[in-house]
Design goal:
598 residues; seven-stranded antiparallel beta sheet; mainly beta
């Protein structure tokens, strides 16, 4: 069988799993931009309200069908038709941020006046008539981030006071009255980004401390009403945070410096995945589970390694100023290819319209003229889950690691894998598709052979009991790498709670699936996978049947007792059943390991 690229391997699994091991997602937008207005100067901010798109920046003209139409740093148009709307408040300085709440569009920036009336750096504007609201304050400093929620307009930037009342880079106003709110957390440096969640406000920037605590470097969460720090959120971003997008299960961050990074964090601040680029990631948004990233990068790195000035050291793929990542951190093929230096400055998504808008300093997208604004609409439905996303209990693509070298769990369950090595066995990551795979020690005989396995905790939610379970991996194995038996995935042993496993049997290289307690039932493949090509392997236990699939094709099924259950205190392992002697060491290369229960 011909070698499958990594994305083809994932796609093969996705026909059943909706993208191996993670959150189900509904759609991805087209890489070809729709028809929309252009602008004669930088666009810094974008926001949706229904089918209306609002933009703010440094421009003084919108360009529609080749005509220049006056719009002074603020404009709006219909996303469905691209028609410029008669919404034209004017600002006397650059608009850096926008947010929408109900019938009000909020703007922040360098301006002193809106519509000729005094509005110092912050203003509320009617979403339909462009008239100013009562929101009017004197701001000492430079606000550059806005977010709405919890009856408040949250403001971040480099701020020292509002109306003479001390504030340290953060402030809030009541949306119903425009009054200054008591909410006043502090940071010791600039806040670049804000995002509101159901019970917290995320802060991102170049600060080292929030509310005076050292453990809050660059990214923190505070209470939306009191401003008190949320001690349960403890991320560790490696460079300054430039943009944020909140989700129900955590937050996504765009980082600048050291090249650039897009990072998915859980609600506790643990890293799910990281994607690295050769320039700053400056914008981030989420639509249908897909994470869209913008910046001034030109390439996405195939691994998390980069060098001087952000250069990708292990290979890269062209992603001019825009990229998309699936819920497990896999780089998608979506590549509109925008031009320019500063690139994409902000992104916004509309679930209602199924659209993503990008703004910045680019002038072409995919070779088409799109001056500083581009919108991408839905192109195709992706596989949708008929089951709850919690059914996925583990997912590993080996593309990202956290600081101590363990591998992230893309399922969001936090089942990290750590390397356990003996006799000089070492991790070796090799390129595979748009990411990387893990190569295990070479075939060897004798007690002194190098050994390496990945091991997780003995987590109860990795036990299926008698419920349906599916698990699998992408496997690359040559004829010279086979042995008497090699474990790919295993949890438990034949006694003491039972086991489930995926293995390669004998020198023939035919895989099999095992499930049982005391008596382990085996479903054996009729075909070998030891041919030097990538293959996707899957084990399925559903009620009275255990099956094995190779590249999506059913190879065999065997009966098992319908009440047979596996509940074991043993850890989950990849690449062997342990690091001791006779560990059934795997000698090939693995990628995209996953487990689905339910």
């Amino acid at each position: 069988m011909a070698k499958l690229p990594k994305k083809a391997l994932i796609a093969g699994i996705a026909t059943i799993l909706f993208a191996a091991g993670g959150t189900a997602f509904a759609e991805i937008v087209s890489p070809s931009p729709v028809t929309s207005p252009s602008f004669n100067g930088s666009v810094y901010a974008v926001a949706y309200r229904g089918s209306t798109v609002y933009v703010g920046g440094a421009f003084t003209r919108a360009i529609v069908d080749g005509r220049n139409v006056e719009r002074t740093r603020l404009a709006a148009f219909d996303s469905r038709t691209g028609a410029l709307l008669d919404w034209k408040p004017s600002a006397d300085g650059n608009v850096r941020a926008l947010a929408v709440d109900g019938d009000t569009v909020y703007a922040a920036g360098d301006f002193d006046r809106i519509n000729g009336e005094s509005r110092d750096a912050i203003a509320g504007i009617g979403a339909t008539d462009g008239a100013l609201t009562a929101l009017r304050h004197t701001v000492a400093g430079q606000p550059n981030a806005l977010a709405t929620g919890h009856g408040r307009l949250y403001v971040g930037g480099r701020i020292t006071a509002v109306d003479g009342v001390p504030r340290t880079n953060l402030a809030a106003f009541r949306t119903e009255s425009g009054a200054l709110d008591p909410w006043a957390p502090t940071t010791d440096d600039t806040v670049n980004a804000l995002a509101t969640g159901a019970d917290r406000v995320y802060l991102g920037g170049s600060f080292h401390r929030a509310n005076g605590l050292r453990s809050t470097l660059r990214l923190a969460a505070v209470h939306p009403e009191t401003g008190a720090l949320d001690p349960g959120f403890r991320p560790k971003p490696v460079s300054q945070v430039l943009a944020l997008a909140a989700a129900a299960d955590g937050v996504y961050a765009a980082l600048g410096g050291l090249g650039g990074r897009a990072v998915s964090y859980t609600r506790e601040g643990a890293t799910r995945w990281t994607r690295v680029f050769d320039g700053d990631a400056q914008a981030i948004t989420v639509l249908g589970g897909i994470v869209y990233v913008g910046g001034h990068f030109d390439k996405a790195c195939t691994t998390t390694n980069n060098g001087v000035q952000g250069v990708c050291t292990d290979g890269s793929l062209a992603r001019g100023k825009l990229a998309a990542v699936d819920p497990q951190g896999n780089l998608l093929d979506w590549a509109p290819q925008a031009n320019g230096v500063a690139g994409t400055r902000s992104l916004a998504a509309s679930p209602e319209l199924g659209s993503v808008s990008a703004v910045g300093d680019f002038t072409t997208v995919g070779g088409l003229p799109r001056k500083r604004y581009a919108e991408f609409g839905v192109v195709a439905r992706r596989a949708e889950s008929a089951r709850a996303t919690s059914d996925f209990v583990a997912s590993y693509n080996f593309d990202t690691t956290i600081a101590d070298g363990t591998f992230d769990d893309g399922s969001g369950r936090g089942h990290l894998l750590r390397a356990v090595a003996r006799n000089g066995g070492a991790l070796r990551l090799v390129p595979h598709g748009a990411g990387q795979a893990l190569r295990f020690p070479a075939k060897c005989t004798g007690a002194a052979c190098p050994r390496l396995v990945l091991q997780g905790e003995a987590a109860p939610d990795l036990n299926p009991g008698a419920r349906p379970i599916r698990y699998g991996a992408g496997v690359l194995l040559s004829p010279a790498e086979t042995s008497s038996g090699e474990n790919i995935v295993q949890k438990g042993y034949s006694t003491g709670g039972g086991q489930y496993k995926l293995q390669v049997d004998g020198v023939s290289g035919k895989p099999s699936c095992g499930f049982g307690e005391d008596v382990v039932h085996l479903a054996r493949s009729r075909v070998s996978v030891a041919d030097g090509n990538w293959h996707s392997l899957e084990c399925r236990r559903t009620g009275p049947t255990l099956s094995i699939l190779v590249d999506g094709v059913l190879q065999s099924s065997v009966p098992v007792p319908a009440t047979l259950a596996v509940n074991t205190d043993s850890p989950f392992t990849v690449g062997g059943k342990g690091a001791g002697a006779n560990n059934d060491q795997f000698h090939g290369t693995l990628d995209d390991v996953w487990v689905h229960i339910g």
